[in-house]
Amino acid sequence: MQKYIEQLNEAQREPVLQKDGPMIIIAGAGSGKTRVLTIRIAYLMHQGVDPFNILSLTFTNKAAREMKKRISDIVGTSEAKNLWMGTFHSVFARILRSEAEHLGYPSNFTIYDSQDSLRAISGIIKEMQLDRDVYKPKQVLSRISNFKNSLITVKAYFNDPDLQEADAMSKKPRMGEIYQNYVDRCFKSGAMDFDDLLLKTNELLTRFPEVLAKYQNRFRYLLVDEYQDTNHSQYLIVRALSDKFQNICVVGDDAQSIYAFRGANINNILNFQKDYEGVKTFRLEQNYRSTKNIVEAANTIIDKNKVKLDKVVWTANEFGPKIKVHRSITDNEEGRFVAATIWEQKMNHQLHNGAFAILYRTNAQSKAMEDALRKRDIPYRIYGGLSFYQRKEVKDALCYLRLVINPKDEEALIRVINYPARGIGNTTIEKLTIAANHYKRSIFEVMQNIERIDLKLNSGTKQKLLDFVTMIQSFQVINENQDAFYVVEHVAKKTGLIQELKKDATPEGMARIENIEQLLNGVKDFIEGQREVDGARGALSEFMEDVALATDLDKDTSDEDRVALMTIHLAKGLEFPHVFVVGMEEDLFPSAMSMSTRSELEEERRLFYVALTRAEHQAYLTYAQSRYRWGKLTDSEPSRFIEEIDGQYLEYLTPVESNYRYKPMIDSDIFGDVDKSKLRLAKPIGGSPPTPEEPVKPDSSIRKLKPMTGSNPSTGSANLFDNKLVAGNVVMHERFGKGQVINLEGVGADKKAEIKFEVGGLKKLLLRFAKLDII
Ligand code: ATP
Ligand code: MG
Which residues are the signal sequence here (predicted)? Predict the structure, then answer.
């Protein structure tokens, strides 16, 4: 037996050795699903399967690259090169390019990112003179996206009275028309949005049996990682392609299904056995990633979910340290705690930055973390958020490049036609848009024919439009013979973009020029990478494809050692020795927007399961008692998820707050099927709450404040100790000086102390904010 197969355990080996037929591997986090897929591909090749016949679909392109690298190590680079691997979007974009003509699209079609789609929708809403407050562009786009992922075309929409009625009920009776206009506009621009890449693939495979047959024959072996997060559209593609040979292997974990909000359908995994005949089901139970403590704690969480497949996850790894729970007063203090802990762990254990990940529920939480890391000079990288390619100056440059490849691209054209300023005003652009809609042509084509169309433009304006057309065409000529780097540099200069940016000598302005430089560096890297791989020319179109389909994780190309910051959604499939899950607060995680039904809450719980199971050695759960949200300081309570973990797996770094009361949802509609007697005021973590009437008693366990020991990285702010304060304590206040606590009142975030200061007399201070030291 090959050595690489010997490295698998028996349960993992079985699905690798099973060459043909439909199979599903359902297993918990860290049990080697992705590893099995990788080894399976290598083994298929060793058994003589042509790499051209293998298609493997992954969650990110980065994951695909890593898999390919491992396979290369086993079977050799030249063989592995021919494997088809990548995300659904990148693989099918490639197929759509070669088959575009079937669908009436040019093969150089543009791929719109969500910003482009949003601009197009906004434009349509404006042209239709609809109220933006009713037809909120983001909502409209998300509704259209849902249609597409459920394969509801415009025609299907107008044939479905229920859908129309639903929109009418939500005061958007013209949704269908917007959908129609958006589809027309994309088509006219030779553009597909992200959802189109799947929708059009489905269209291609259903409308053209010969195309379907071609790809069925090509992809004799299909493998899908993270199958639990496929949506309906992806599901149908997989089904269609695997229908002939039925050599399909999917792996997934129903407990990690976290994309229902984007249309992922957990039933795809639950129903797999019904979809194919003779499905072999494999289960992996041994986790190799995490300590016993983490694995067992994670099991206790997921046990709380009702909808799940029964699964066992265990590990032979050491027990490891308990999960550390930390409370802070504010989100900034939470950031300081995280940064201080990383700093200390690095010092004490000689760890590198890449050993740490900070995971959060929403991107907005990264700021406090970033500030704190920066103060300690700890290098970090943020994944997600506003991507590099969406920064204004970078996107401007990219839009010119998009026009070079596809001048029909309207969103790109509208964005840069008058930037840098060339005297082409909004009225002119509006006239062009109307004419383009009228003639069912692109704006660029209207401009090319501007002498023949009467738009009541003066000759100066017409000349400016023609100059723009000529400029783009001259770039196209250059693009035919030069590599991407040459073209991008040329375009940045000739369009006046760089000169325009240079006018702004402020640090922000300089940073914008640096971003353009970084774009050029990116192009250079890309070309080099291309040459290394298969001697490709490094054409602009290839670079642009890469940019359009890059997932947030894909941009991680440099080897620099940095702490990783990302949302939990992005962290799926990854692993880190030390993981901080921050913002463990009610309304934030679980999110306030995902608590109205049991299934939403269960999805949040699965998300928490994903977060915790990213940790190999040590997990931290942190929460703040107050944080800025939507510009307002908001009080918060610890997440119910902390309490859901069996206490034996937790270690509290901060004293458990005795006064906070954890509010479960007592809305019977939400937990209709739950025993209401259990919905008492849940006990606070680690202790029972005082009854509301009961006065807050002084706590005899309170010791004098002593400096934090070196091993506790908490960052000093004295109001950490608000719960330790008792009447009689002598305290030092940053501004008021020395004083004595006379009385305490209120609970939790509202807790106040009446203090008699030596200078200044009696003052009542909200402990949440007071900067006090007990002396
Ligand atoms: P997730 O559900 O998070 O995607 P997974 O099931 O895909 O996890 P992998 O990422 O494949 O799990 O494996 C988790 C870790 O365990 C990896 O570091 C992998 O290399 C290691 N691992 C898996 N199987 C074995 C094994 N048989 N021997 C040693 N290490 C293993
Ligand atoms: Mg995996």
Answer: none
